[in-house]
Amino acid sequence: MIGRLNHVAIAVRDIEAATALYRDTLGADVSEQVAQHAHGVTTVFITLPNTKIELLEPLGEGSPIAKFLDRNPDGGIHHICYEVADIRAARDQLKAKGARVLGDGEPKIGAHGKPVLFLHPKDFTGTLVELEEA
Amino acid sequence: MIGRLNHVAIAVRDIEAATALYRDTLGADVSEQVAQHAHGVTTVFITLPNTKIELLEPLGEGSPIAKFLDRNPDGGIHHICYEVADIRAARDQLKAKGARVLGDGEPKIGAHGKPVLFLHPKDFTGTLVELEEA
């Protein structure tokens, strides 16, 4: 069912500093910052030859990554995103196997403009898994 | 400097259960288990179309992932591995920019039989970064 690794998301306190680190120290291609008000994060994408790293900085009140940064003050890997061909079919298969989908179970339009769902970390070896319809 | 994302490593308590989850619930290609006594872990690779997920279970006394699992009882993403063309040149560049290399700074032969180094999470947004000579 799962296809490509779409991205690995890293939550950071200071996206400017983290972008400079990836660009200047690690020598990677970095995007401009995008303020994603609907998602409560500012994003920068690091383009690697085979996948992407997504840097996330909290934006506004009640950002979904604020608690994660309280628990991980230096930042850290927040989630991993796998591509699926049909997100509703994937959801139904996963639910049939007992996996929990976060929220109301309906795909939302994610930060890349595509339907996404998040799966419960307790059901996936402590890892927050995002599925994105590719 | 950094090239492809070689793998994302997930530490787990029960590699048998985690392998079944990736194979049966997520429908991915999984390898056999390999006991890596020199590294204190048992590994399973999940092959995705563009990269790999490495499942790690502690093996023997003093496994390098034992403390991580004490802090993260459900398991979790342990490190991320980027490929570099020349690991000593990469190390020297990183050190010149003030980044700390773990251990004695000399590349070791990693779980894939290639030279690897680990970078200090405090210098990389709370993320343990492995570099592997591709």
From TrEMBL, chains A, B:
It is an enzyme of class 5 (isomerase). The keyword Metal-binding applies. Its EC number is 5.1.99.1. It catalyses: (R)-methylmalonyl-CoA = (S)-methylmalonyl-CoA. Residues 4-134 form the VOC domain. One of its GO terms (molecular function) is methylmalonyl-CoA epimerase activity. SUPFAM superfamilies: Glyoxalase/Bleomycin resistance protein/Dihydroxybiphenyl dioxygenase. PROSITE patterns: VOC. Keywords: Cobalt, Isomerase, Metal-binding. The keyword Membrane does not apply. One of its GO terms (biological process) is L-methylmalonyl-CoA metabolic process. InterPro entries: Glyas_Bleomycin-R_OHBP_Dase, MeMalonyl-CoA_epimerase, MMCE/EMCE_epimerase, VOC_core. Belongs to the methylmalonyl-CoA epimerase family. This is methylmalonyl-CoA epimerase. It comes from Aquabacter spiritensis.
